Amino acid sequence: MRITPRRAAAGLAASALVVTLTACSTSGGGAEESGEIDMESQVGYMEDFEVGTTFKATEPVEFSLLYRDHPDYPFKDDWPIVEHLKNNQNVEFEYVNVPLADLATRRSVLISSGDGPDIMPSIYAGEEAQFRNALLPISDYVQYMPNFQDKIEKWGLQAEVDQLRQEDGKFYLLPGIHEIAKPQYSIAVRADLWEKAGITEDPETWDEFKEQLEAVKEANPDIDYPFSDKWSINSPMEQTLNAAAPNFGTTAGTGFINGLWWDEEAGEFTYAGASDGYRDLVTYFASLVEDGLMDPESVTQEMEQGEQKFASGRVAAISSNDQELVKYRDNFEQLGTKEAEVHQIVVPAGPYGSYLVAGSRRESGIVFGAEAAKDDDFLAMLQFVDWLYYSDEGLEFSKWGVEGETFEWEGDKRVLKDDIDVNGLNPGAPKELRKDFGYHNGVWMLAHGSTEELDKSMLRDEVVEFLDGMNQKEELPLPPAITYDEMQQEQATLYQTNLQDIVYQNTAQFIVGDRPLSEWDDYVAELEAAGMADYVELANSAVAGE
């Protein structure tokens, strides 16, 4: 995208520095279907960009960006991260600013209409498949991304990347990646109320968790419910069900995506929403509601509602991650509830065992508008993305900020400046790293995908303990890639959307008792009527190598 009238002159200057990667060109811009880039048409890129190189565009460039505006740290166009990227990397953004709650819907509209911005972060694997024709096949261009390639090789993640490939052999999502698995979501409990019930150990199984809820309810009769869930933005209890599902032998919540479950023993996909494991999962949480142990509003309430209930003492446990723990403690402090002690439990095992989701070292990632390859700063964009999201320097910058400004080194450890807090590292500090500086922001750091050292560098001891506990679980086998052709993809998308709507609606109804579980077979029949068998057959016929 053009930013200054100097583009034409810069383009001529660049032509004198042509490298011999390709001799091809296109009428619309700088990229061929093969992934080769006509260097003569490109401006702003660095000729000597490689692992260890700090990216700085050779002239000002601007990329359109789909920005996920998080309510906990509302967007500010004068954040230091924005200013540093402008001054040090020569990069500015044309923002398409979308509230977090509207992200999936707005992104779908933008991509489907052909108006998708150049860079669109915060999208999970599987969500991109239906938009393939309107997205850039980024796999064609990873040869221009040395940091990405380096980490995929060093960390042994090629199988996770290959699992993203579509029928044409290409992948359209550039994933966030971890050196080690970094699960975040579980349940935070009021440890003081647990101790009042005589409980000092975390539950090892979900059945034991239910027993603990019963004991907490009996020991604390003033609470409304022992447990409430606050994340139902796109589907009911989406983070809790996602974390619990592998332990029931299924997939759910944010991990539901295409609704398919890979049966490793049978060597085929089945439909998760109709499986025995999904029924067991839903039955378990429905039993919590039926026994007065879980707030029935969990399947619909806004985040703030759940947080208020927890802060006011109306509930004793709530869905959580390491960042939310800090928020909960701040809320208790503001209300003067000094006795409140909050602790996040390791996700309990279930009837299927103790598992992490498949591909747990892969994070939400980025997709790119198909038209991005036509821009004369396309190569500069690839280099910038590679530096920011995959280089050690870029990963540190987006997470910690700038040495001397937001943090200092103490020996071999980074320490935030005394007046800055994030995740409770400096409780009571007047400034916050996300709200006031823009760092530690999932838009610019792919949900914290990073090296093990960086992943743990900002974690409190309790979070490292949680992470180590979760990494003792076994990771589910990675399913094979489903490689639909264009017509199959259209069919699959229709099936997927209709089936998902039925699953989400009935998941909520079953859990809160609006539909009795005795009607499970009727529900499965509704899925069958919506094409479930044809959808599963379509997926299995499109498994890579079939």
From TrEMBL:
Residues 1-23 form the signal peptide. Gene3D superfamilies: Periplasmic binding protein-like II (3.40.190.10). Pfam families: SBP_bac_1. The keyword Transferase does not apply. Keywords: Cell membrane, Lipoprotein, Membrane, Palmitate, Signal. This is Sugar ABC transporter substrate-binding protein. It comes from Promicromonospora citrea.
